[in-house]
Amino acid sequence: MVSRCRRLPWNVEEVNDWWTSLSPAQQQDIISNRPDWIGNLDGIPVNDRGAANLNRLNSEITAVDEEIAEKQTEFEGQGGPLDDPVYVKRAQQELHRLERKREELEQLRETFKNDSGRHTLVLLDATSGDHLQAAVAIGEEDFADHSVALSDQAEAGGERLAGFLDSLQSTHYGDPHLVAAGHSYGSSVTGYALQETAAPDEFNALGSPGVSTNHLGPLHIIPGKFNVASTRYLVGGPGWSGTGPAASGMMSCPCRLMIRGVLSPVVAGGW
Q1: Phi and psi dihedrals of 150, rounded to 5?
Q2: Residue 184 in contact with residue 152, Cβ under 8 Å?
Q3: In terms of residue numbers, what domain contains 83?
Q4: Do 26 and 110 fall within a single domain?
Q5: Largest pairwise CA distance in the chain
Q6: Fewer Cβ in 10 A, N or C end of the chain?
Q7: Quick check: 49 pLDDT over 80?
Q8: Distance from the Cα of residue 33 to its chain's centroid
Q9: Are 52 and 31 in contact (CB under 8 A)?
């Protein structure tokens, strides 16, 4: 599947050109029969990625079930030394990790069974970490007048987020007003992502410990389009991710907070 294979040597525009060159029947055949090709592939329209990822859920659960069965066989003594306490502990941890991931996949599947169609599963990755990684879009991302991209992943997710933002820009029908928003350490991830993409028009940092730079230039955001909210947030105190945006003087003043799509003034304080 795409998440387990080397990425195609195409940029998002080339991926989108390939996808739009296919007939609707060809596209549907891939979504139905080879959803792993496009589920996590930047440059594919959001709704098509979502349909593909929903089709991947059952096979992902089956794959985890097979891993669990394999580990259970080992743990029962048919594949490993049960008299080795180090081995037993590691086997137990691995089994618990897989069972937890299986539960997360099942919860995601049940959630979308009851969904009205408003949510789209734009990323599904059950192989890269101890926990399931998923990204869910709300509304029609490829047609929306305003879009907000949220990230709460670790610093290494910046490159991945940048690719997704480029994909939204490429697949959107018309030029979107794209807002990148990150909360807590997610704002640090977003800061790293914005150093690799110029797709977003605005950047909202909420409760941020730092956005990877003290200047707007590297973020590709023009003055007046960087907004900070929720100061006095303890995670920013140590300054592990750099100077807080409020302290650096980069933010728009007065500080603004997005609530249900409406930007409202809030009081900016110390970090």
Answers
A1: -105, 140
A2: yes
A3: 1-119
A4: yes
A5: 65
A6: N
A7: yes
A8: 24
A9: yes
